[in-house]
Amino acid sequence: MGNINDVADLSTEGEIAVLTLNSPPVNALSAPVREGIFEGIKKAAADSAVKAIVLICDGRTFIAGADITEFGKKPTGPSLFDAQDMIENASVPVIAAIHGTALGGGLEVALTCHYRVAVPSAKCGLPEVNLGLLPGAGGTQRLPRIVGPEKALEMVTTGQHVPAKKCLEMGLVDELAEEGKLREGAIAFAKKVVAENRPLKKVREMNGKVEAARGKPEIFENFRKSIARKTRGFLAPEYNIQCIEAAVNKPFDEGIKVERELFTKLVTGEQSAAQRHVFFAERQVWKVPGIDKDTKRIPIEKVGIIGAGTMGGGISMNFANAGIPVTIVERDQAPLDKGLATIRKNYENTAKKGRISMDDVEKRTGLIQGTTDMKALADCDLVIEAVFENMDVKQDIFRQLDEICKPGAILATNTSALDIDEIASVTKRPEAVIGLHFFSPANVMRLLEVVRADKTSKEVIATSMDLAKKIGKIAALVGVCPGFVGNRILAQRQREANKLILEGAMPWDVDRVLYDFGLPMGPFAMSDLAGLDLGWRKENSKGETIRDVLCEMDRRGQKTGAGFYDYDENRKATPSKIVEDIIKDFSEKKQIQRRDISDQEILERCVYPMINEGFKILEEGKAIRASDIDIVWINGYGWPVYRGGPMYYGEKIVGLDKVLAKMQEFQKAHGDDFEPAALLEKAVKEGKSLSELGY
Ligand code: 3H9
């Protein structure tokens, strides 16, 4: 038999042919892989000595889907449908042998096979929705025919990877093979199929489960309602639902037409392009120039946290969750006890929701020890300081750490605002000092800004990035500057939001525009949630800002039942007449002539300076690449994934020339807050994209 092409090999074991694909890293369905399947199955089936064919993959996984890098390019060679038809219409049974993950187009190929065998560690799923797509190779029509429309709806709208054992229960997999012995297991299964003369089972012909759901539109209506909140703004979930609806209500071939039409709309649309950008950005963000697998890592077996407050507690939980012992240090026993009790309560609440067991609660709290003695940190491999933001206090702590901690330990600060070079300067080992900026609640939020200071060593950076992955974060490496990347960009939006309400908009106008844009909430709703008195002191208040006035009136946000908005007992917000009057009064006092401000202006005033700031960050070298900034804003601030992140949005959706022109127009009208970044001007002048400019 032999090689079909560079990525496909055909061999035989008695009367069973084995078609093996090998296209690293994930056997995606590139042109050669499609050709390998098409030609391989054709050749095997044409051999009268072959009674069944096993389709199996080498490397870490079964086919993980269509080759995403090929989208938008002209297809070559046999299409995926050609390859699938070849399998489904083969004259002998074809058995998919699954390890790793059968995802997207990969599972769709397996669904055209007549049988499926998997090892217990394998997983199957249709995750296209996460790329702003739907399964476009028959997945939406075949999946519900096996698992029923309800389970299919859940799978295609969440993209979940379903473990093999569950797949077996759902009928998606016909048999489990012994772990590590997939090839043998699949061949044995194939022999059984031949010996028992089992039929060529075509999923497209299995109509029982879809017919049973016909005439029950409530299945879909209820499902739509149940996911509405989570999928707000996204097109793909709804299109996926429409395809499953078609599978239920139309014959197979008609359903395929619906799938094709909706897939085409999505794959050529703005949202999917943005979501595909995010997919690659999430992988790119881990790559740090100058650091590779040979860079030395520092083994982290024990972690110290200074501060048992909300931040310190949340950070500790990350490590305990990953099985790493933690020592928390507080100055006094009372706040320490309070912090430890909060951690236990958080775990118990998670257990109540069924996400972890009570056993886990004990195990994890058991890994967290509290003490008031800094010296207990002597044997920690990493210490993270998480006390309040004050340079003197932090420097004092780092002086002590320098004395106490063992050589080679990483000394990290969770500061979100202070100069880490200044903190590092009080130690004799500035190369060991790094910023690990967690976002609140630290045990929940995925983002971690890893902040490299001037002298931070490569080993310390590499270890921090690895550790971030280990504790389930997505980490972006950034440089020292006020607010680092995330908050520095946020400050731009905040400044404009505050100006806009003096010029004529109301807080609820600004919030509505940003919410409709896709952010989880606008800046004023956010302030009310966080508490307007965060960082505010009565004795320092001079009534000079709207916030001062609101705090003095005890309108301190949701917790006091009023802030920028009024809140009812269910914390439902309504615009406040009192606040409206206060704002108008402020405008008058500042002699600002209020005017009508359009939604578009609100959006552009808030968002374009953020993009512009991103350019400044890049030109100053405070982020490695533009897509890292997108990752920060998506994972730390809820920027809508379907708009790709602020940098992607500016470049690929709005257009840099338009962003620059608006910044110039705003600069003329409102001053130098809108001064365009030199790099933005350069990109537009030279007609170059950020990636062409090396970002
Ligand atoms: C689809 O199938 C559409 C069809 O329905 C319809 C067609 C008509 N293509 O994640 P990793 C790269 S849509 C190209 O770090 P892991 C990835 O960029 C597709 N490249 O590994 C990375 O490259 P690099 C539906 C891909 O072990 C490298 O492989 N399928 C693809 O942590 C390793 O990836 C999906 O959405 C691809 N499809 O996780 C599955 N996938 O090394 C997407 C990966 O240069 N993939 N790469 O940075 C995944 O979820 C994970 O990659 C997987 C492995 C779980 C498979």
UniProtKB/TrEMBL annotation:
The keyword Isomerase applies. One of its GO terms (biological process) is fatty acid beta-oxidation. Its main location: other. Gene3D superfamilies: 1.10.1040.50, 2-enoyl-CoA Hydratase, Chain A, domain 1, NAD(P)-binding Rossmann-like Domain. Keywords: Fatty acid metabolism, Isomerase, Lipid degradation, Lipid metabolism, Lyase, Multifunctional enzyme, NAD, Oxidoreductase, Peroxisome. The keyword Thylakoid does not apply. Pathway: Lipid metabolism; fatty acid beta-oxidation. It is found in: Peroxisome. InterPro entries: 3-OHacyl-CoA_DH_NAD-bd (IPR006176), 3HC_DH_C (IPR006108), 6-PGluconate_DH-like_C_sf (IPR008927), ClpP/crotonase-like_dom_sf (IPR029045), Enoyl-CoA_hyd/isom_CS (IPR018376), Enoyl-CoA_hydra/iso (IPR001753), NAD(P)-bd_dom_sf (IPR036291). Monomer. In the N-terminal section; belongs to the enoyl-CoA hydratase/isomerase family. Belongs to the enoyl-CoA hydratase/isomerase family. This is NAD-binding 3-hydroxyacyl-CoA dehydrogenase. It comes from Tepidicaulis marinus.
